[in-house]
Design goal:
single chain; 668 residues; alpha+beta; Maltose phosphorylase, domain 3; eight-stranded antiparallel β-sheet; six-stranded mixed β-sheet; 18 helices
């Protein structure tokens, strides 16, 4: 949650008290028909490992902001908020980063998010890279967190004088959610049953204190309650526990949480009645809007109700309207009823991660390959394009068309200097240390969705260099996937089994791959290549997708260039400004100004051509592929040859290009 905005709305809410009443809602959509089967199953975390360029990037992150964030913001990490520094009614102030002010203690949950989201990403990166030093540090953290658990099962940030008893804003469920995600990852990696017992005790404590259908955990005296509504993501924990145990009470509780969330007056887009309002536009805090997609999905699968499936379809269409060409969803910080615009609407890294996880969740539950396309669009474009391509820093907020990165969006007026989100930093403590932890989570979450299981065998759901080692029908299976995807489109699989075994291997076919080549027999069904055979000791499969350059049109009728799952951009030469130096080397904050501003327009004078050059991108993966084309210089009105690169290779850039006649109309 973004601290300054939360404070602002909390103060406004105090000045303008609102009487809370339940919204009149027809509750039939929450009646349970039957829990729906989840089409695919996650593998235990750690069975899928990154290789190739993904592993190299993760190692840089672990050596960079992921592995050192506790040193970059030591004051926030030193707060033992789950332990000896739990919040009580006597605590009126706490160092939470960019705000140091006296306020109600139930609001002071922010360090739990900073710490636990970072830990979740840090734990997962350490596991996937098998880094012994970082694994040892995380082992000690897990032992400490488990030691904070009370005899009744409570893990959280509130002492007994506060917990489970709030009139509005609080971090009760949110602090648990962020902490338990990391514990779940450690459990999946180690298989230690005492961790699972502790997690289930924590959840049982919640269900005991917020009894299903007999209380209102989302009732708030103020409609804006950021930590409270973040807490709806407790459904993530419930869903994973159901997958482990088969206990449907976890699903029923997830449905109850979504129902109570929807029936209270809250400033949130994901409430059922707002979704079903045909005139409603997404407008609230972006990261909430996109993370609540998973809770709506959980409610649908828990109930099997067609009404919730209809709501989900509507919600997905509204989110599509908020997505720029790179997939980046409006969230700078509010959606604001807008439609995506490559220049005017920014997206924060938190929103990129939460939406990506929402699409991964839908891919796993429905098995529909379209969600794989959405995940890859986001991960290979918006997520990579909001990272610094060379330094260990990310953009808190970014736009597709990025004309400058000096704090405010594309150089908008910033007289008081308080807008600092549009820059590169390894921490962003001047706003909130939320996006950097989520930038550390996003790659492990992509990796965990690369391979899944179904009743017939193994499924390659997302593409990229990886290896997976798991058990299928009592047979140990190991598969290596060698590829430079998404820059290259050949994937060489080596399938190894410890004994002859018959199972099905399915490979997701991206929607843009209209033609493929393969050295194996397969059938195609619902967007998957299906290989049904008896596997011997080692089998080599060669697969090639054949992309074409496609010139797309965004919602503003501007053109942009795609090739496979990549979106291309015209880099803008820039001047770097170091705005902060951290005591920990080599970390810096960076701003960027363009050397010159030239707006290019679309020209169809010359057909674009793709070029591969491994040497050109020797030190930067994304520069190994480029696109040669012609664009119209707006100032000279003459066509010029230009080179476009994937957005992940750029800092300042132009992604979309208006037609000349459309640009003239815009000016007039």
């Amino acid at each position: 949650m973004k601290r300054i905005l939360l404070l602002l709305f909390s103060l406004i809410s105090i000045l303008i008290p609102l009487a809370m009443k339940s919204q009149p809602v027809n509750n039939s959509q929450y009646q349970i028909i039957a829990a729906m089967p989840q089409k695919l199953q996650w593998l235990p975390f750690g069975e899928i490992k990154p290789t190739g360029w993904i592993r190299e990037q993760m190692q840089k992150d672990l050596d960079g902001f992921v592995g050192h964030l506790d040193e970059l913001v030591p004051d926030l990490m030193a707060d033992s908020i789950y332990g000896k520094d739990r919040l009580t009614k006597l605590v009126k102030a706490k160092n939470v980063g960019n705000i140091g002010i006296e306020m109600d203690p139930q609001y002071l949950w922010w360090n739990s998010e900073t710490q636990s989201n970072w830990r979740d990403g840090y734990i997962r990166n350490s596991i996937l890279l098998d880094d012994k030093n970082h694994l040892n540090k995380n082992e000690k953290y897990v032992a400490w967190l488990l030691s904070t658990q009370d005899p009744d099962g409570y893990i959280g940030v509130y002492s007994k004088d506060l917990r489970y008893n709030f009139p509005d804003e609080n971090g009760e469920l949110w602090a648990k959610t962020t902490a338990l995600r990391g514990l779940l990852a450690w459990y999946e990696y180690t298989g230690r049953q005492e961790i699972m017992v502790a997690i289930q005790k924590t959840v049982a404590d919640v269900m005991r204190n917020y009894p299903v259908n007999a209380c209102h955990p989302f009732k708030s005296d103020k409609p804006f309650a950021g930590g409270l509504t973040h807490g709806l993501m407790f459904t993530d924990i419930l869903d994973r526990l159901y997958q482990f145990t088969g206990d449907k009470s976890y699903l029923d509780y997830a449905l109850f949480l979504y129902k109570d969330f929807s029936e209270n007056i809250l400033r949130e887009d994901g409430q059922y009645s707002k979704i079903m309002d045909t005139g409603y536009r997404l407008k609230e805090h972006g990261v909430h809007t996109y993370e609540h997609l998973r809770s709506l999905t959980a409610a649908w699968f828990a109930s099997g109700k067609p009404a919730l499936k209809k709501a989900l379809d509507i919600y997905l269409r509204r989110i599509d309207q908020c997505a720029t060409p790179s997939g980046g969803p409006i969230g700078d910080e509010w959606v604001g009823g807008r439609i995506a615009d490559a220049t005017a609407t920014g997206y924060e890294y938190c929103s990129i991660h939460e939406l990506l996880d929402g699409y991964c969740n839908l891919l796993q539950k429905t098995g529909e390959n379209r969600f794989g396309d959405k995940v890859e669009l986001l991960f290979f474009n918006a997520a990579q394009g909001a990272r610094h391509p060379e330094k260990s820093a990310i953009a808190y907020c970014k736009t597709d068309n990025s004309w400058q990165m000096t704090g405010a969006k594309n150089g908008e007026p910033n007289e008081d200097g308080k807008q600092t989100r549009f820059k590169y930093s390894p921490a962003h403590q001047d706003v909130a240390v939320c996006c950097v932890p989520n930038a550390g989570r996003i790659t492990p979450y992509y990796i965990k969705a690369m391979w899944t299981k179904d009743d017939e065998g193994l499924v390659a759901t997302l593409h990229g260099p990886s290896e997976v080692e798991t058990t299928i029908k009592n047979t140990k299976v190991r598969i290596l996937a060698e590829t430079s995807y998404p820059l290259g489109f050949t994937i060489d699989y080596r399938v190894m089994v410890n004994q002859p075994a018959a199972f099905v291997l399915k490979i997701r076919k991206p929607d843009w791959a209209k033609k493929i080549s393969a050295n194996f027999d397969y059938t195609e069904k619902e967007g998957f290549l299906i290989i049904n055979r008896t596997w011997q000791s080692a089998t080599d499969l060669h697969l090639e997708f054949h992309p074409e350059i496609v010139i797309m049109e965004d919602q503003q009728k501007a053109k942009y260039f795609t090739y496979g799952s990549l979106v291309f951009a015209k880099p803008i030469e820039s001047r770097e400004i170091v705005t902060k130096t951290f005591p920990v080397e080599p970390f810096r904050d960076f701003a960027y100004l363009p050397m010159k501003k030239i707006d290019y327009l679309y020209s169809d004078e010359k057909k674009p051509v793709i070029k591969f050059d491994a040497e050109a991108g020797k030190n930067q993966f994304w520069k190994r592929i480029s696109m040669k084309t012609t664009l119209l210089n707006e100032k000279t009105e003459k066509p010029e040859p230009v080179t476009l690169y994937p957005v992940g290779a750029t800092i300042l850039r132009q992604v979309t290009f208006m037609m000349k006649e459309d640009d003239d109309k815009k000016i007039k």
